[in-house]
Specification:
5 helices, about 0% strand, Arp2/3 complex 21 kDa subunit ARPC3, about 75% helix
C-alpha cells in the first residue's frame, strides 16, 4: 500500500480553501454566499469545459456549491485579522460543516447510502481534510494575508465590506 502525503486536499480544494479563508471575510453576507457557490462550482465546471474531464459535474456540484456558499456566509461574519488562529478556526469549522453536510447528510439522501455507513466512511476522509486544512490555515494563509488585505483595502466595491467594518 502506497503512502499518501496529500493530507486529503487536492490542489483544487486547497486553492479553494486558501482563497476562501483569505477573501470571504471581506465580503458582505449574501455576496459571500454567492461567491462561495460560484467558486465551488468552478472547481467542477472548469475541468469539464476546458480539459474535457468527465464526471466532474453532477448533483454534487449543486449540493457542494450550496454548502460552500453557506461556509462563505459564515466566513463573512469573521473580522479578517490575519492570525493563524482565525484561519484555523475558519478552515477547520468550514471543513467540518462542509464534510458533515455533503458526506454524512447528503450521501444517504442522494445515493441511498445507509446513514451509519456514510458517517463511518466520512471519518477518515474528514480527518485527512482537517489535517490538510490545518496545515494550510497555520502556514500558508497567514503568509499570504498581508498581500491580500493590502489589495482589498485599495478596492471599493458594493459586494465588499467597507474597511472600517472589516
Amino acid at each position: 500500500m502506497a503512502l499518501d502525503f496529500s493530507l486529503g486536499i487536492s490542489w483544487q480544494f486547497g486553492a479553494l480553501a486558501v482563497g476562501s479563508m483569505l477573501l470571504f471575510p471581506f465580503f458582505r453576507g449574501r455576496y459571500a454566499f454567492l461567491a462561495g457557490a460560484i467558486c465551488y462550482s468552478l472547481i467542477d465546471i472548469v475541468p469539464a469545459l476546458f480539459f474535457g474531464a468527465t464526471g466532474t459535474v453532477g448533483m454534487w456540484t449543486l449540493t457542494g456549491a450550496l454548502c460552500w456558499g453557506l461556509v462563505a456566509l459564515l466566513f463573512s461574519k469573521q473580522k479578517p485579522d490575519g492570525s493563524p488562529f482565525t484561519f484555523a478556526k475558519l478552515g477547520l469549522g468550514g471543513t467540518l460543516l462542509f464534510d458533515a453536510v455533503t458526506g454524512v447528510i447528503l450521501s444517504p439522501l442522494l445515493w441511498g447510502m445507509p446513514l451509519a455507513d456514510a458517517f463511518v466512511g466520512q471519518i477518515p476522509f474528514t480527518l485527512k481534510h482537517l489535517l490538510g486544512i490545518g496545515a494550510v490555515s497555520i502556514i500558508l494563509a497567514p503568509v499570504l494575508f498581508p498581500t491580500v488585505r493590502k489589495r482589498i483595502e485599495s478596492m471599493r466595491h458594493f459586494a465588499l465590506k467597507p474597511m472600517h467594518a472589516a
